[in-house]
TrEMBL record:
It comes from the Eukaryota. This is LLGL scribble cell polarity complex component 2. Residues 659-688, 972-1001 are annotated as: Disordered. Belongs to the WD repeat L(2)GL family. Keywords: Cell cycle, Cell division, Cytoplasm, Exocytosis, Phosphoprotein, Repeat, WD repeat. The gene is LLGL2. It comes from Physeter macrocephalus (Sperm whale). WD repeats lie at residues 433-451. Residues 273-372 form the Lethal giant larvae homologue domain. Part of a complex with GPSM2/LGN, PRKCI/aPKC and PARD6B/Par-6, which may ensure the correct organization and orientation of bipolar spindles for normal cell division. This complex plays roles in the initial phase of the establishment of epithelial cell polarity. Its main location: cytoplasm.
Length: 1032
């Protein structure tokens, strides 16, 4: 049997790989892209959001999340929970109805689709006859009333979706039961509203678009009373006691209709246009809610003066003489009001207003004076300003974590102290084993710090760099500034603000040292800021240093945008990260690479023209290096230049084709064919000596040095390694360019006692030119044990072992086309993996990560996580460069998603599936962050806002519905809480490096709380059209 095995196939290694690697898309962070519907269950305290792509997302207490995807990629139009049950009905824009249910299996809840149904009319009927406009779930949970464009109300029985034709309420039947004077007014058209009587389930309210509202008796099939308005009807609200109906209309007004025994009320006793007398836009939805204090809450959407405020997206709240129009920066999709959940209660007593806007979710506290907003623990608007870059930092020390939270809490004083009101279900996910930060840079010059430790992505702190520069707007100006007597009483709410004062403020690179608290931020206009964490307010001047990257070049003229003007004199800074030095690159091109070494107090930066090194302790420039090629004129135009030379682009394309043809003719054999063929075969054998099987390689054309942007600096890397000789190691800086060149500079950093007296010196020691001139995307130095060098100060804090400085070090250079290992200090090639030649893909992102075994607690391996332009993720071993596993993660057409991907140190990753959502994935069997939650139907028996939740000890697993399939994963039973877990954060485990895998005899019994026992193929997000493998 041994001879039939593929060469290099090791069964023991394959088993070990199954213990180390497993691909899972675990959770989506952020706000759903293109929301289209909102639903809420008062009994479950669960919120549902539907999107245009057909996704349904349910949210409860922090950590309680479910997601379902309709089989059809149609937009969800309406979502309705069945009263008191863990079931909901969705209406899509293709007029289909879908029944979903939350079912408890094995101690956990799963969301799955039970039935689907499309309302059909009689043969030959117009499509509008059955086009559903309104859905009303009856309190019996057995019937659905469906209002249509034809004016008829159809009745469907649940859960089988069986149409009850004998119970249909046609417009003709209603017309026959109305007085004669009403029949001639064409009062019907489509059904706009359906409401059940709050106290009597045998009565429903039907509102027609022409202004007619009737109360229909279901048992007697008759009209109990009707109301007729002269304005087009938009929506209605039935007061809790059933004695008052409030209707809103297209003229921006609303009417109050007392319900009495009189069958006819020609005119409403009271009509009101809140923002009249000038023409106003329609009020599309209204709530009339009673309180114990006697004065009701009136909450409505729209109604603003058409001429002056017709473009505003507003929801107004009126109560006790106070009126506020909450102004949103994006279109309002829908809203609801959280009230007393017990239907037998005498008053509504609203306590929160929940608004689903197109770009964010806003919750308003209605019980606190001033009606402040409530800070959401999830559904964060990540794209409040467009995301331009991201940076992940693992295992944050507790002291730094607490300081960041303290600085962020001072920024949240405008939020309400109310606990998050949408708190249904119980999160059973284990407590995060460590504290992780995800930093996002934005177009408006801000950096946001997110808690990425668990399922919920929570905003901790926001840093703004705008104060350092002179812009058109004053940072002290308030967006809510408005006089007290202004009318309408507008108040801006929400964090979404897509407009940037100056595109040059955009953040392009971020680098945070978690041990020292130093932060480096680089922007679009060549600005590099070095910041330090300060717990107190400060007012000081930011020192400015200019770095001229073209100082030795002549004849170049920058055609791009101008530099940002720094603010002169002292600047006031809030507690948090405060800048103390500004390095301005000249020309002011986009900063393309950034590296910070807090132990040496050095920061390196690179642009399309070159790179430089700055000593931020002495506030002194160490050196600059120009990498600009003489023929590279496009690098001088800048990303914001409006004028691009079409002739120049065409000329360069033709030149490239001509060079390719000339080079192919030059490569024709000039000597004896046998000699050439022998040399070629010898070269191929040498290049593939480390590959087990030799597949057919693609022909790769070498790039020319005259191609555009060859001097573009792609990566910068600090390392303490052997650069000059094999006896003494020294600090070094490595830089890789777009033209396949690697520069190595030897640094001389004075000791700590003379650090301020002696300057840091640098000298170029090496220069490597890759043969194909492929862009260098990553540089890594491995110690004597073939382990990546630790981060600065990591060894000093006893969080990593000291690197092996006895054995020979190795340099790993990752280009877009291949991986290559060099021996240091001689820089002789050892190993090579040709990715492009073998697979036709190019490297886009690379990161070093360690993978732990789910069987052996202390066993781990160091590998490279690689993302290609095809959207595939591969794991490549170090230092042998052996491909381990390969998964399909991102669609190859999703260029923005591939460009936004960031890897973590523990084999996880994030990428943008939409401008507002991060998809989180894991390559490790040991590190898995995903929601595990329980929504028990027993909770519906208690209608109070506070109830006893089932303990986490009842849960042993989690289930997720995806396209009709359920993937079940056993899970540990631990509750998760927002903020710091009870008992404090666990100590970070000391990393353990092992050069040899454990033997089978030394492995403990298999216990893997995060390894799924059933593998399915599923699209986790609406943008993933493929079906990636769930298991390794």
């Amino acid at each position: 049997m041994r001879r039939f095995l593929r060469p290099g196939h090791d069964p023991a290694r394959e088993r070990l790989k199954r213990d180390l690697f497993q691909f899972n898309k675990t959770v989506e962070h952020g706000f759903p892209h293109q929301p289209s519907a909102l639903g809420y269950s008062p009994s479950l305290r669960i919120l549902a959001i539907g999107t245009r792509s057909g996704a349904i997302k349910l949210y409860g207490a922090p950590g309680v999340e479910f997601m379902g995807l309709h089989r059809e990629n149609n937009a969800a139009v309406q979502i309705h929970f069945l009263p008191g049950q863990c079931r909901l009905v969705t209406l899509l824009d293709d007029n289909s109805l879908h029944l979903w249910s939350l079912k408890v299996k094995g101690g956990v809840s799963e969301l799955q689709e039970d039935e689907s149904f499309t309302l059909r009319g009689p043969p030959g009927a117009a499509p509008s006859a059955t086009q559903i406009t309104v859905v009303l779930p009856h309190s019996s949970c057995q019937l659905l009333y469906l209002g249509t464009e034809s004016g008829s109300v159809f009745v469907v029985q649940l859960p089988a979706f069986r149409a009850l034709e004998d119970r249909t309420i046609s417009s003709e039947a209603v017309l026959q039961r109305l007085p004669e004077e009403v029949r001639h007014r064409r009062a019907f058209e489509m059904v706009e509203a359906l409401q059940e009587h709050p106290r009597d389930p045998n009565q429903i309210l039907i509102g027609y678009s022409r202004g007619l509202v009737v109360i229909w008796d279901l048992q007697g099939s008759c009209v109990l009373c009707h109301f007729l308005s002269s304005q087009q009807l938009e929506n209605v609200c039935w007061q809790r006691d059933g004695h008052l109906i409030v209707s809103c209309h297209s003229d921006g007004g609303y009417c109050q209709w007392p319900v009495s025994s009189d069958t006819l009320q020609p005119e409403p006793p009271r009509s009101c246009v809140p923002y009249g007398p000038f023409p106003c836009k329609a009020i599309t939805k209204i709530f009339w809610l009673t309180t114990k204090q006697g004065l009701p809450f009136t909450i409505f959407q729209g109604g603003m003066p058409r001429a002056s405020y017709g473009d505003r997206h507003c929801i107004s709240v009126v109560h006790n003489g106070q009126q506020t129009a909450f102004d949103f920066t994006s279109r309002v999709i829908d809203f609801t009001v959280l009230t007393e959940a017990n239907p037998e209660a005498a008053f509504d007593d609203p306590y929160a207003l929940v608004v689903l806007a197109e770009e964010e979710l806003v919750v308003i506290d209605l019980q606190t004076a001033g009606w402040p907003p409530v800070q959401p623990p999830y559904l964060a608007s990540l794209h409040c300003s467009a995301i331009t870059c991201s940076h992940h930092v693992s295992n944050i020390p507790l002291k730094l974590w607490e300081r960041i939270i303290a600085a962020g809490s001072r920024q949240n004083t405008h939020f309400s102290t109310m606990e998050w009101p949408i708190n249904g279900g119980t999160s059973l996910a284990p407590a995060p084993p460590q504290r992780d930060l995800l930093l996002t840079g934005h177009e408006d010059g801000t950096v946001r710090f997110w808690d990425a430790s668990g399922v919920c992505l929570r905003l901790l702190y926001k840093l703004s760099t705008v104060r350092v520069f002179l812009t058109d707007t004053d940072p002290n100006d308030s967006l809510n500034a408005q006089g007290e007597d202004e009318w309408p009483p507008l108040r801006k709410v929400g964090s979404f603000d897509p407009y940037s004062d100056d595109p040059r403020l955009g953040i392009q690179k971020i680098f945070l040292c978690k041990y020292s608290g130093y932060l480096a931020v680089a922007g679009t206009a060549g600005q590099v800021l070095v910041l330090e964490l300060n717990d107190e307010e400060a007012e000081h001047a930011v020192e400015q240093v200019e770095a001229d990257l073209l100082q030795d070049q002549e004849g170049y003229r920058w055609k791009g945008h101008e530099r940002l003007c720094a603010r002169p004199g002292p600047v006031h800074f809030e507690p948090g990260f405060q800048p103390f030095v500004l390095v301005q690159c000249q020309p002011p091109a986009v900063v393309t690479s950034l590296a910070l070494h807090s132990e040496w107090r050095l920061v390196a930066f690179g642009t399309s023209h070159g790179f430089g090194l700055f000593d931020h302790q002495q506030r002194r420039q160490v050196f600059v290096k120009c990498t600009l090629h003489p023929n590279d004129q496009l690098a001088l135009e800048g990303p914001l230049s409006r004028v691009k030379s079409l002739k120049k682009s065409l000329r360069q394309s033709f030149r490239r084709i001509r060079r390719s043809r000339v080079s192919s003719r030059k490569r024709r054999p000039a000597g004896p064919p046998g000699e050439v063929q022998e040399g070629r075969s010898r070269a191929e054998r040498t290049g593939l000596q480390n590959v087990e099987l030799a597949p057919v390689q693609r022909k790769i054309e070498a790039r020319s040095a005259e191609d555009s942007f060859t001097g573009f600096v792609r990566t910068l890397y600090f390392a303490d390694t052997y650069l000059r000789d094999s006896f003494r190691h020294c600090p070094s800086l490595w830089a890789g360019t777009n033209g396949g060149t690697v520069y190595a500079f030897a640094l001389r950093v004075p000791p700590a006692e003379r650090r301020m007296d002696e300057p840091v010196r640098a000298e170029q020691a090496k220069e490597i030119q890759l043969m194909h001139r492929a862009p260098v995307v990553g540089i890594l130095v491995l110690d004597g044990h073939s382990v990546p060098l630790p981060e600065p100060l990591e060894v000093a804090h006893d969080l990593s072992k000291s690197p092996d400085m006895q054995g020979s070090h190795q340099l790993l250079v990752v280009s877009e086309e291949q991986f290559k290992v060099f021996a240091l200090p001689g820089v002789s090639a050892r190993l090579k993996l040709k990715l492009t030649a073998l697979e036709g893909s190019r490297v886009r992102r690379v990161g070093a990560a360690h993978f732990g075994s789910c069987r052996a607690e202390r066993y781990r391996e160091h590998h490279l996580a690689v993302l290609t332009n095809l959207g595939d993720i591969q794991v490549v071993s170090l230092p042998l460069l052996k491909p381990q596993v390969r998964y399909s993660c991102i669609r190859r057409e999703d260029v923005s998603g591939i460009a936004s991907c960031v890897f973590t140190k523990h084999g996880q990753g994030f990428y943008l599936i939409s401008p507002s959502e991060f998809e989180r994935f894991s390559l490790s069997t040991k590190w898995l962050v995903e929601p595990r939650c329980l929504v028990d139907s027993a909770e519906t028996k208690n209608h109070s806002r506070l109830c006893d939740r089932p303990g986490p000890e009842k849960a042993s697993g989690r289930a997720r519905w995806v396209k009709g399939q359920v993937a079940f994963a056993p899970a540990p039973a631990h509750p998760t809480l927002p903020g710091v877990p009870p008992g404090g954060w666990p100590e970070s485990p000391s990393p353990v490096n092992s050069a040899h895998p454990p033997s089978s005899a030394s492995l403990p019994p298999f216990v893997c709380p995060t390894l799924p026992c059933k593998l399915v193929r599923r699209p986790h997000s609406s943008r993933d059209q493929g079906f990636p493998e769930r298991g390794a």
